[in-house]
């Protein structure tokens, strides 16, 4: 049967994306949606997790007439092993990003880098104290050095637990200890997962799933949390401020540079170079009005949260941004960067530059960044972009207009400040039922869905039900484009949430950062639970990733659940080939960690699911 081609309308919710999809077709640029069509139908064995490639006696596929792999592994073991490696990949991604942040802090502390400095000394001292480092009588560098050494140790072979478990309620820590899933060290848990899934090691699906939880907890409460906290120390803790979102942030009369990836270490330097008067006059000499910097995906979130730099779009907008024909340079660090961007760039005058030795792309120019050359390299890049401006073919430029305004910058520090310094007023609002609970909607785009349909509709449905929504990652762009990140969106919220938002002047959907910043949400959950003297699993909270795609998103979902937060996913990971593993994820985990996953592609039904959960948690706390 011939495959049915999706219309542009079915591919995306957005006018800016639709216009660029149309232009891409005319310009002969292939996009992720085209390639998805070529890849469909997908391999059923892979989709259900029933393929094993862990040794050369295989590869093996589990079928009715071949229920065991050559070694004797059954469907449950193979599915659990595959899931374990999947989330280990995601945890490694976030955490290696965290390690790069520690190296930056360490280098600054030793005075080896003049390219970076400590912007938030108060936060450095606060975290050092929180983690038991004596700060009295010590200089900032000395404290930074001790803190970076402590964080380095969190990656190694700790016997006990990672440092930020001081933020975890005692009940939860006790539960993790009893289950044997207390995260000891980031690298340790990831390496152990690779070991356990080698042929002939952990051949018990539930036991493997418990180590998946442990590995992801090391990501959430260590790798990601360290990345977030150090980024705040080095570049400033986010405060609420205005920004803009959609492809309309690209400007026709300016040199346009896009930064893409996850780690702010490169993009913060690019921002400095873009503001350099020498670079601006160089751009003017070439006939541009100036230099415009905009972000994509999570690097975009990082720059927007701290510096208010506009966001061009999320994951599925990255190719489409190039299709505007007005982008001179796209600078990438790592993660979620489609290799197809090089090809798309070659269809125009757009140059793609990679900056990390661990994320090189064939066909892209490589300009490696390190602690000692970052300012110099950033200026070099901006100069390259300026030179590219004269190669732009104005007849091929088409930029969708009308970016949406949004408020960003809701770090926990900013939220607590807005509440008068303590979580008390938030707890009171929850007790009074004005805010019935909170849901974090996080994660990606996936071309299998109509882009952002699930992300936006779920947020809208939840705020109507007085459920405060927190967003990070690629959901930010979705809800921002829908206008939900503006205080006026309170008018779309239920009466209780509306009242609170109006009183505080905040939107009903709060932007809390990038993917690693989901650690901010974990911390907030810990603060609320500790304040009430309960476990995180007792709180009226939920997580959701309606359009997720990445290994990292699966790791986030797993650490949410293991931390006691019910988590909705638009579609399951590749685990449905095992009843044991699927049942464990959907219900069995509930009796172990007090939370589980829920699967629902329809955002309206998902809102029901989350609402029911929040209602039952409220009842558990004796609230109506
Ligand atoms: Fe097949 Fe077992 Fe080897 Fe996997 S580990 S490929 S199931 S023989
Ligand atoms: S960038 S992991 S597509 S959120 Fe963090 Fe977006 Fe998902 Fe990547």
Automatic annotation (TrEMBL):
Residue numbers binding [4Fe-4S] cluster 2: 52, 55, 60, 71
One MF term in the entry's GO annotations: anaerobic carbon-monoxide dehydrogenase activity
Positions bound to [Ni-4Fe-4S] cluster: 262, 298, 336, 444, 474, 515
Required co-factors: [4Fe-4S] cluster
EC top class named in words: oxidoreductase
Residues binding [4Fe-4S] cluster 1: 43
GO biological process: generation of precursor metabolites and energy; response to hydrogen peroxide
Catalytic reaction equation(s): CO + 2 oxidized [2Fe-2S]-[ferredoxin] + H2O = 2 reduced [2Fe-2S]-[ferredoxin] + CO2 + 2 H(+)
One Pfam match: Prismane
First and last residue of the signal peptide: none
Keyword tags: 4Fe-4S, Iron, Iron-sulfur, Metal-binding, Nickel, Oxidoreductase
InterPro entries in alphabetical order: CO_DH_a-bundle, CODH, HCP/CODH, Prismane-like_a/b-sand, Prismane-like_sf
Enzyme Commission designation: 1.2.7.4
Name the UniProt record assigns to this protein: Carbon monoxide dehydrogenase
């Amino acid at each position: 049967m011939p495959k049915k081609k999706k219309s542009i309308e079915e591919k995306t919710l957005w006018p800016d994306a639709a216009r660029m999809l149309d232009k891409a077709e005319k310009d002969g640029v292939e996009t992720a949606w085209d390639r998805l069509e070529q890849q469909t139908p997908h391999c059923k064995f892979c989709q259900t997790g029933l393929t094993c490639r862990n040794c050369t006696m295989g590869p093996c596929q589990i079928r009715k007439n071949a229920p065991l792999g050559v070694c004797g592994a059954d469907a449950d073991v193979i599915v659990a092993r595959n899931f374990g490696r999947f989330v280990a990949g995601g945890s490694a991604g976030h955490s290696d990003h965290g390690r790069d942040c520690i190296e930056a802090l360490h280098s600054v502390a030793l005075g080896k880098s003049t390219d970076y400095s400590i912007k938030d000394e108060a936060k450095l001292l606060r975290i050092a104290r929180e983690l038991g480092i004596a700060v009295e009588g010590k200089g900032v560098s000395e404290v930074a050095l001790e803190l970076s050494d402590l964080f380095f140790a969190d990656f190694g072979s700790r016997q006990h637990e990672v440092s930020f478990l001081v933020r975890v309620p005692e009940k939860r820590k006790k539960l993790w200890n009893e289950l044997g899933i207390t995260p000891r060290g980031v690298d340790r848990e990831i390496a152990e997962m690779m070991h356990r899934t080698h042929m002939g090691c952990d051949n018990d699906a539930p036991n493997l799933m418990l180590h998946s939880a442990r590995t992801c907890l090391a990501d959430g409460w260590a790798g990601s949390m360290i990345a977030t906290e150090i980024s705040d120390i080095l570049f400033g803790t986010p405060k609420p401020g205005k920004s803009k979102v959609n492809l309309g942030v690209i400007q026709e009369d300016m040199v346009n540079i896009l930064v893409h990836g996850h780690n702010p270490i490169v993009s913060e330097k690019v921002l400095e170079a873009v503001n350099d008067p020498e670079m601006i006059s160089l751009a003017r000499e070439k006939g541009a009005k100036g230099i415009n910097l905009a972000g994509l995906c999570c690097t975009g979130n990082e720059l927007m949260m701290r510096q208010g730099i506009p966001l061009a779009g999320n994951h599925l907008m990255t190719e489409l941004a190039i299709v505007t024909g007005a982008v001179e340079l796209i600078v990438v660090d790592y993660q979620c960067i489609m290799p197809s961007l090089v090809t798309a760039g070659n269809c125009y005058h757009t140059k793609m530059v990679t900056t990390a030795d661990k994320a090189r792309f064939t066909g892209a120019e490589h300009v490696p960044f390190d602690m000692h050359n970052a300012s110099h390299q950033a200026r070099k890049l901006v100069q390259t972009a300026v030179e590219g401006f004269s190669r732009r073919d104005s007849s091929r430029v088409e930029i969708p207009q009308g970016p949406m305004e949004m408020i960003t910058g809701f770090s926990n520090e900013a939220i607590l400040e807005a509440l008068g310094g303590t979580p008390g007023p938030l707890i009171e609002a929850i007790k009074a039922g004005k805010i019935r609970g909170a849901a974090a909607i996080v994660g990606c785009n996936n071309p299998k869905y109509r882009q952002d349909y699930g992300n936006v509709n779920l947020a809208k449905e939840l705020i109507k039900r007085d459920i405060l929504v927190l967003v990070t990652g690629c959901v930010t762009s979705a809800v921002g484009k829908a206008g939900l990140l503006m205080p006026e969106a309170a008018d779309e919220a239920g009466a209780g949430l509306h009242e609170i938002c109006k009183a505080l002047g905040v939107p009903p959907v709060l932007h809390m950062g990038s993917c690693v910043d989901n650690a901010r949400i974990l911390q907030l959950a810990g603060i609320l639970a500790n304040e009430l003297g309960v476990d995180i699993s007792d709180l009226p909270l939920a997580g959701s990733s309606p359009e997720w795609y990445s290994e990292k998103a699966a790791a986030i979902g797993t650490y949410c659940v293991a931390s006691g937060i019910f988590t909705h996913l638009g579609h399951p990971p590749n685990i449905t080939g095992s009843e044991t593993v699927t049942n464990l994820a959907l219900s069995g985990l509930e009796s172990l960690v007090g939370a589980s996953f829920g699967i629902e592609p329809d955002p309206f039904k998902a809102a029901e699911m989350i609402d029911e959960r929040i209602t039952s948690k409220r009842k558990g706390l004796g609230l109506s």
